[in-house]
Amino acid sequence: MSTWYNRIAGQNLERLAALSDGIFAVAMTLLVLDIHAPAAHAIHSENDLWLALCALAPRMLVYLMSVLTLGIFWIGQQTQFNHLSQSDRHFTWIHIAFLAVVTVMPFSTSVLAEFITFRLALLFYWANILLLGLILYLSWRYAAHAGLVADADHEIRCAVERRILIAQSLYGFGAALCLFNTAWSIGFIVLVQLNYAIAPRVRPFSRL
Amino acid sequence: MSTWYNRIAGQNLERLAALSDGIFAVAMTLLVLDIHAPAAHAIHSENDLWLALCALAPRMLVYLMSVLTLGIFWIGQQTQFNHLSQSDRHFTWIHIAFLAVVTVMPFSTSVLAEFITFRLALLFYWANILLLGLILYLSWRYAAHAGLVADADHEIRCAVERRILIAQSLYGFGAALCLFNTAWSIGFIVLVQLNYAIAPRVRPFSRL
Amino acid sequence: MSTWYNRIAGQNLERLAALSDGIFAVAMTLLVLDIHAPAAHAIHSENDLWLALCALAPRMLVYLMSVLTLGIFWIGQQTQFNHLSQSDRHFTWIHIAFLAVVTVMPFSTSVLAEFITFRLALLFYWANILLLGLILYLSWRYAAHAGLVADADHEIRCAVERRILIAQSLYGFGAALCLFNTAWSIGFIVLVQLNYAIAPRVRPFSRL
Amino acid sequence: MSTWYNRIAGQNLERLAALSDGIFAVAMTLLVLDIHAPAAHAIHSENDLWLALCALAPRMLVYLMSVLTLGIFWIGQQTQFNHLSQSDRHFTWIHIAFLAVVTVMPFSTSVLAEFITFRLALLFYWANILLLGLILYLSWRYAAHAGLVADADHEIRCAVERRILIAQSLYGFGAALCLFNTAWSIGFIVLVQLNYAIAPRVRPFSRL
Asked: How many angstroms separate the CA of residue B31 from the nearest CA in chain A?
C-alpha cells in the first residue's frame, strides 16, 4: 500500500530544523533588501545624505518589527522542537506551511513599509502574525496527540499553549487599534514584541 | 592513480543534507521575491490597495504550487537520506544535479506566473517536476545498487519507487490537460500536490 | 505562571549557531549583489570592459572590508559559542539583536560604496562595527553571569574581553580619522582588519 | 597576551562547514537570479515565448558551467574537511578567503553571460577558478603542516594535491584557448568539468 510511504516519510526532525533555520535566516536577511541606499544623483552634501537616511526611518521601524516577529516565532518553533523526540509526515507538512508563511513576511513587510497609513496593509501584516501563531498552536496540539513529544510535563504543555493564546490576543487587540490609527497599532504591537524579547522581571509584564 | 581521489571524494551525507537544506531554503524564500509590493504612486485609497493585492492572486497560486512542489521533493529527498548509511561521489553528483533543478524552480515559477495561459510555460514548469522525480528515482536506484542503503527492507524500497512513479504519472496527466486549457493543468496538479501534502485517510486517495 | 515559558524557551545553542551561520552566509553573499555587471550597451571593446571593471574597484574595496568585518565577527561569535554549554532565552535574544545588525551590513556596505567620500556614510558603517562589538561584549558578560560558560578559565575570559576592547578602540580611532579624510579611515580600518585576519607573528601587531 | 585569543579562536570545524554549505547554497541559487523571465509585453504567442526562452540558451550554458564549478569545489572542500580532526584560526581564515571567492562567482558568471565573446570576461571567470584551486591547495598544505589532518595516509594526501594540480592545468589550458576563441575555452572547460562530475570509467579520462 502507498501508506507505507507515508509511514516512513519526513521523520527527520534535525533536517526540518535545518530547513527552518535556513528559511528564517534568508527571510531575516531579505527584509533589509527592501531598504535601498539613497540614489547618488540626488545627494550633493552630507546634509542631503542625513535627510535621505532619516527618510528611511519608517522602513527601519517596520524592519525592526519584522525582525522581532521572526525572532519570536523562531524561538517559539525551536522551543517546541526541543521537547520533541521525532517528526512524522503530518508534522513536517504543518511546519512547511509555517515556513511558507515565514517566507511571505518580507512581502508583507514591504507592503506595510510602503503603505504604512493603510489599514489593509496593517491587517495583511497582522494576518501573517495570526497565521504563524495558529500553525504553531496546531503543531503543538498535533505533536502531543501523535505522541511526538518526548519530555514535556503538564506544566510545560500548558505554558506553551498559554503563551501563544495570550500573545495572539494582544496582537489581535493591537490590530483592532487600526480602527483609530495604524500608527497606534504598530506602536502597540512593537511594544508587545519588545516585552516578549526583553522579558522584564516587572509585573504585570512578566506574567503575559 | 587519480581514482584514489574519486574513492575518497564526497562521502559526507550530512554535508550533502546541509547543502540541500540551504538550497531548498533559499529557493523557497526567493519564490516570494517575484511577488512585488504594488507601486505606491498608483495607490490612492484602501480600495486601490485591495484591488492591487487581488491582482496578485494568480502569482499567489503559482507561488503556492511551487511551495508544494519544493515541499514534496524536499520530503522525498529527506526520506531517501534517512535510509542511507553514507554517500559516495556519484551519489553526491546525482544530488548536485537534483539541486541544480531545484535552483531553477524560482525561474520556472516566474515564467509560469508571467505567462499563466501559455502551454509552453506550463510544460516548462512540468519539465522541472519531471526532472526532479526522475533524478530522485535514479538516486534511489543508484543508492541501492552501490550499497549505500542502510536499513530499508524490500517493502520500503518498493514504496519509495511506487510513490515516485504514481506521482509522476499524475503530474504527466495534469500536464497533458494543457491541450485543453492550462488552468485545468494547474488546478489538477495543485490538487494532486494537496493530496500528497494533506494525505487524507480516505480511499482511493490514500492509496496513491 | 508565564515565566514557565521563559524558562524553557530558546535553550538550543546548536540551532542558534545554525541560524547565525545561515544569516552570515546570506549576508556575505548579498554583499556582492551590489556589484552589478556593467551594462552591455555601453561596452563595445575589451578595453571598455576593462575600464568598466576597473571602475568597480572602490566597490570591491568596500566589499573586501565587509567580508573582513563579517569574518571577524563570525569568528568572534563562534569562539564564544565554543566555550558555552547551553543557551537561554536572554542569551538567544542578545544574539538575535547581533544577527539583526549583521543583516544591516549589506545596506551599510551599499551606502558606503555609493558615498565613499561622505563622513556620514563612514560613521554609519562604523556604528555597525561598534554595535557588533558591543553586543558580543554584552553577550560574553551575560553568559558568564548566567552560568552558561562551560570550560573557560580566567585567562580565556580576559582574552575574549581584551580582544573586543582593543579592536573597538582601533576601529574607533580609524573612524575618527574621517575628520581628515574618509579614505584614511577606510585604509586604517582595512589594515586593522587584515592584521586580525592574517595574525602575523610580528610584534607589536601580535599583541593587539 | 593577545595570542591567547588567537589560540582559542575559530576551532569549530562543524561551524566552518555549516557556513560553507550556507554560502555555496546561496551562491548556487543566486546564479539563477540572473536569468530573468522574458518581459510580458514583448510576448504575444507561444512562438514568441519559445524564441525568448531559446535566447536565454547562452546564459543557461554559463549557468551550467557555474553550477559545475561550484559543485566541484564544494566536493573538493568537503573531501578535505572529511579528513580533518579540527580547525584553527589560520585554517578558518583561509576558508573565509575561499568563501569570499565563492561569493564572487555569481558576479563573474553574470559578467561572462553578458560578454560571452570577450576574452577579458573569460579570463576574469578563469581567475575565479584559479583562485579557488589555489586556496584549496594552500588549505590542504597548511592543514597537513599544522597537524589538523586526522586520518589521511600518504596516498590520500598525494591524491588530493594531484587532483588540484591536474585540474588547474586543464582549466589553464582551456583559458589559454581564448587566444583563438572564447567559445573554445568555454567548451573545453565545460568538458573538463563534466568529466570530473561524471567520472567515466574510461581511460584516459579516469586517470585525470
From this structure: 8
